[in-house]
Write a structure and sequence with these properties.
By secondary structure, the chain is α+β, with helices and mostly antiparallel strands. The protein has a single domain, classed as 3-Layer(aba) Sandwich (L-fuculose-1-phosphate Aldolase). Helices cover 39% and strands 12% of the residues. It has 8 helices and 7 strands. The chain has a 7-stranded antiparallel β-sheet with strand order 4-3-2-1-5-7-6, with helices on both faces. β1 and β2 form a beta hairpin. α1 runs parallel beside α7 and α3 packs across α7. It is globular, with a radius of gyration of 17 Å.
């Protein structure tokens, strides 16, 4: 069986989403990539989480061609594989329809950086993509979803480029969040934190609609104490 360890890690990431209440029924999926072998492991489509086992995970190449497995891969496979091809430093991708993050996506709103909890994990707002065109929706919809995420992070004349490792999540307009990390555990962890900061942001805006975001100084202080060469958080 190919990439046995990665299968176990991806299974655990999928189950973590359930434990943390980020998915209902068979909503959502997690995947991981083995860069050396060019293989992706992803949850099979529509299989109940209670029935998942490492051997049921589907293995594909980076273009989405099935290499090993008898079940159909997640319907979001083309988004996952595109993110792996474009964001070459990431090792796993998670997609959920978690309540508060999805509420921001459905409203077409970024999640603003309002406090230090957000700043610990996301170096600035969690962006939202523009709505997909009718042509994109009617064509290679799942691929176009990934393209919208990549385009949002590359930036354009109106929006600055974003480092996908500094802001490891994106809201797809009218849809839901995609989150990533250096490995499957990291991606699932980031998805859990994303939902927490989305919930806080929703409540904060409800209390004070015109609230200002966290200052750049405080954003820097909290983000860089956990990330980068000068990080001081935790044990060496």
């Amino acid at each position: 069986m190919l990439v046995e360890k990665l299968r176990e890690e991806v299974l655990e990431a999928n189950l973590e989403l359930v434990r943390r209440g980020l998915v209902l029924y068979t909503f959502g999926n997690a995947s991981g990539v083995d860069r050396e072998q060019g293989l992706v492991v992803i949850k099979p489509s529509g299989v109940d989480y209670d029935d998942l086992k490492p051997e049921l995970m589907v293995v594909t190449d980076l273009e989405g061609k099935i290499v090993e497995g008898t079940l159909r891969p997640s319907s979001d496979l083309d988004t996952h594989t595109l993110l792996y091809r474009e964001f070459t430093e990431i090792g796993a991708v998670v997609h959920t329809h978690s309540e508060f993050a999805t509420s921001f996506a459905q409203a077409g709103l970024a999640i603003p950086a309002l406090g230090t909890t957000h700043a610990d994990y996301f170096y600035g707002p969690v962006p939202v993509t523009p709505p997909l065109s009718d042509e994109a929706i009617g064509g290679r919809y799942v691929h176009e979803t990934g393209m919208a995420i990549v385009a949002r992070f590359r930036g354009d004349a109106q929006t600055a480029a974003i480092d996908p490792l500094a802001v490891p999540a994106c809201l797809v307009n009218g849809h839901a969040p995609f989150v990533w990390g250096r490995d499957a555990h990291d991606a699932a962890h980031n998805a859990v934190v994303l939902e927490a900061v989305a919930r806080m942001a929703y409540r904060t805006i409800s209390l004070a609609a015109n609230v200002e975001g966290v200052s750049q100084a405080l954003l820097d202080r909290h983000y860089f104490r956990k990330h980068g060469k000068t990080a001081t958080y935790g044990q060496s």
